[in-house]
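Structure ticket #2291
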Amino acid sequence: MANSKCVQNKSVKVTVDMSYNPLECSCEQLPFWQWIVTSSVIVTARSVDICMLNGKVIPIKTNTDVHNLVKLLENDVCKDRTWRTWATAGGSLLIGVIVTITLGTAMYKNRWKIRYVIYSRGRRYRHEGFEHMFSHDAMISYSKGRARFIKTTLVPSLEQRHQLDFWIADRNSQAGVSVAENITHAICTSRKAVLLIDSEYLSDSWCDYDMNMALVESVETKRNMIIVVLMEKFETKTLPVSFLRLLKNERSLEYPDQEQDIDTFWANLVEEIKS
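Resolution: structure written out below.
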């Protein structure tokens, strides 16, 4: 009506009387308030002079009040804040990723100690500091390919001739108990851990488990219990860093190539086990 040619040609002002109508200053009503500001229509609401915004009374007595209301709605109350939601979600996700990575890294670095604690709980302390209470003189760690050597050579040479008692996986593992728990129990109940190292040993995951559990036990109980026996010749550059560190810090023997040196080797190994 206000924009019609008839009204404009006659220079007539169009007036809307909003008196006694409850007015709301909400985002849904923002287009209405913007229209009041920009329109040539004269709006009167003098009998009300207020509107409600989120339960709060806002004065609209003058045109300035109406302009201020529109600015408040446009720049604050009705301003799009979805970016804050995304920013909050993104920040929370980033924090979660950082915490997960941090915990994951810490758990990975201490994975052997964590496994050790899980499987040795309630067992290690029965023997710590009381070597005469250990069930075995040594736990023998070996690859599957050495099983025949253990049965036909090591057991007759050491157990039968020197009256030593060994924990051997193929013979002493408890039925119904997990491999990991059997290994940890064997290490905790043995005075020494003899690692028969060959190429197959270094590539076997359970042999790696033997070695790392023995290392953790050695550190946790503060006893020198690891004896490394090199069953074959190795080039240093082919060995993993973790194993080189083991060789540097632990006692090691080499299995002889010559038959005449075998008895000396067994005697040295027996001495190491009993020391």
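Closing remark: The beta strands are 15-17, 42-44, 50-53, 56-59, 136-141, 166-168, 190-197, 226-230, 251-254.
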